[in-house]
Amino acid sequence: KISILVRGLEQSRAVSNCSLVDDYRHQQLEQMKKRLGEYGEPLMVGEYKQLRMMFDSGCPAMFWLFAHTDGLYDLQDVIQRKLRGKQSGDGAEVVGIGVGSMVLARYSVDKAVYRAKVEEVIEGELFSVRYIDYGNRDDTLTKDDIYPWDEMLEIIPPQAVPCCFYKASEAISKKTSLNLKEMEAFTLLMKQSSPMQMVVHRRNNLPLDVFDTSVHQLGPDLVVSLRGKDGRDVLHKLSKLSAFTACFGQKTQELDKLQPKTEVPTEKAIKQLEALQPPAPLHAVPHPLHLHDADLVQDDGDGPPSPVHPMFTS
Fold it and tell me: What pLDDT was estimated at residue 177?
């Protein structure tokens, strides 16, 4: 009887400790949400005056931006601490994981773990995920790189969002097929313009839809205008690039007649562009986390935080 009583007390104490830990993590995430300020809420119609929005990848029809804030580093710190000591994921034990599932996924470049959404599963063994706080993809993950989702992390909205340009011509808003010269020019322009100010003119999807496993990303969430760190409108700068002059002005109608019409940028087209994204002369990528015990390479560059490929934009 004494033994049974002792085991009962130990189990009760363990449950109590777990509850205390969960309460502490919930308070920690709520405080983090407040520190994020306007980026602690879903991005809505309005003006975001701070130079915070960083380009990650994409094409003129749909590109990914993320808010570069100290709060983003804090969020990653919480995730790494949660999974500290786990060298491999629990993907083999996660029941029902598939396209649309929310997961924590290791990034193959820096080996850290981030919030992600599964976009493709190949024969139940390989996973393609989108990191929802940066906007980039990883197509080479195995079950060992996948960890179960923690619903408490939904307190913080995704810090990355797919966008398209406001008042862009049809030749730009539907331009999902880029040649190498156009891709290099667009990527370099967006990288050099970052961090950017942003005005959201329209939201196409409901806020926090990304956490709904039945919702798949088929097009831009936000219609935006952007102003680079040099103070100039980004779409206007795009119109001045020799690679895109044919997409603006009087030649737009002629091009529209020659090119097949596409209602929205297809997921397949976007993936093909990301897979072909060429190397660009970018700044070095800094250490992504405020952790002293992470065995990662440190860099003194001033580029955007990981996960971003050092040589590739996606």
Answer: 84
Place of tokens 């929205």: 264
Q: What is the pLDDT of residues 65-110, one digit of tens each?
A: 999 999 999 999 999 988 887 767 666 566 678 899 999 999 999 8
Segment 28-36 shows an average pLDDT of: 91
Q: DSSP for the chain?
A: -HHHHHHHHHHHHHHHHHHHHHHHHHHHHHHHHHHTGGGGS---SEEEEEEEEEEEEEETTEEEEEE--HHHHHHHHHHHHHTTT--S--GGG-TT--TT-EEEEE-TTT--EEEEEEEEEETTTEEEEEETTT--EEEEE-GGGEE---GGGGGSPPSEEEEEETT--HHHHT-----HHHHHHHHHHHHHH-SEEEEEEEE-S-TTGGG-TT----S-SEEEEEE-TTS-BHHHHHHTSTTTGGGSTTHHHHHHHHSPP-SS--HHHHHHHHHTPPP--PPPPPP-SS-SS---------SPPSSS-SS---
Beta-carbon contacts of 229 under 8 Å, excluding residues fewer than 6 positions away, are: 51, 193, 194, 195, 196
What was the pLDDT predicted at 47? 97
- Taking the C-alpha atoms of residue 7 and residue 231, their distance in angstroms, rounded to an integer, is 66
pTM, to two decimals? 0.74
Segment 166-218, tens digit of pLDDT: 999 988 988 888 899 999 999 999 999 999 999 999 999 998 899 999 988 88
Cβ atoms 280, 308 nearer than 8 A? no
Token code pair at residue 183? 């891709």
